[in-house]
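Box 3.1 — From sequence to structure: Na+:solute symporter
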Amino acid sequence: MNSLDWTVLIGYFGVMVAIGIWSHKRVDNVSDFFTAGGKMPWWLSGISHHMSGYSAVMFTGYAAIAYTYGVTSYVTWSFPIAIGIAIGSRLFAPRLNRVRSRLHVASPLEYLKGRYNLPTQQALAWSGVLLKIVDVGAKWAAIATLLSVFTGVSLNMGILITGAVTAVYCTVGGLWADALTELGQFIIQLLAGVAMLIAVMAELGGFSSLWTVWDEPVMQGHTKPLAGPYMMVFLIAYLFIKTFEYSGGMWNQAQRYMATESAESAERSGRLSALLWLIWPLVLFFPMWVAPVILQGQKNVVPADSYAIMAEQLLPHGLLGLVVVGFFSHTMAMCSSDANAIAAVVTRDIMPAVSRKVREWDTRAGLLAARWSTLLFLGLSMAIATQVNSDFFGDIITVVIKWVAGLMGPIAIPLMLGLLPWFRKSGPTAALLSWGLGLLTFWLVNYPISWQIEGGVPLQYQVSIPLVVSLVLFILVGYIKPEDTPERDGILAQLNPDGDGGAAGAAIPAPAGPAAVPPVREGADG
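Predicted structure (token representation):
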């Protein structure tokens, strides 16, 4: 990188901070900070939903998969995400919007106290927060790795720079700042991705390389849809996991649906995000797929660095800076949105359960706590990022795929299936057993059992078995020990279309926490 590239990068950071400061004017209370006051247009929510699902892991960990195995990186990653979001846009998005508009809550987990009970809410909240600290730590490490490749900046300094800039805009401006910066980031990565695609095609001989490059000897096997550890079991498990995760189990995605004006807008938002996930990753992946052709003959190429190496070799200065900015765009979009979601859970779900004083906070105190919680989460995740390549965590892609995919199912299933009337009999016992034994299964499969098997348990079973255990237990225990009550049925009636919520219930209890709102009754709409 030269001075022109640095100018582009520094200018980008400046614009992100400026958007955060501008968004500060739109944040008057915790509802504005966490759900944009329910005023976000569906198209902005859809773009924000799409962008908050990316990170620089796309250009490091998944670049390594694409370099090694080819198109399986798309077939077993972005394609199932697109399908999962499309399913969730119909099944979960409208109901999550009603969580805000009918129950008047600001956190995706606030409704769980009434739907199950306080221990269930706290179990999901604490475990989800801890998982997200590790997950976002892996994202910081990924972008710092790329920054090191381009600039020589140390890993820890790269983590500090990106985390500090993200902290400024997402702490000051809340969800509005997240969404507006993600719109700008979407435009930037659109330009950067197209620039890289054109540069790669030019290097390979033109537009025709899109179909001729696959005949190259080094591309042998790159057209197989399933390869390596990413086989059919992994694909099916990943589809289930990502349906739950990207439809709201990853709390920042739930916030995008909650922030829209209506249930219909939330559904349109999800459909837009699904369409972007189906199409845009193809543009990003093609240069990664053909990297073996462009980099053949070069010694000691690390697959995770292949995309960065090609960018340095093929792009002129200025455009190179734009591509680096594109890396930052993905990571900062995901990390800032995660920080906002975690702050919502901490201030609205965890802290009110721990301290009586928190339940008596006024609007100003609640908003201040939200901002400090955001900073605390970012700081902890940055600290984890410095350890993400340790022997305990494994490399970046291991953290993201194994830990997040393997643990997301047990955490997300009670949250997401609890929205649906078909599982109204599954109460707190089903939820806690599904959660607890799912986490225990993850530990058993990945560690004690894996240590006893030569080569370890295959990745596809590491991520799929905990999900299956949690899903089966949640449904089975609900039938063995039904715990539906008029109050729980009343909540379901509020979240589902008329006539689809089970038995009518009494008044919905007001959520505990800062700036709690009065109870609403069945049939209220927002």
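Summary of the box: The chain has a mean pLDDT of 81.
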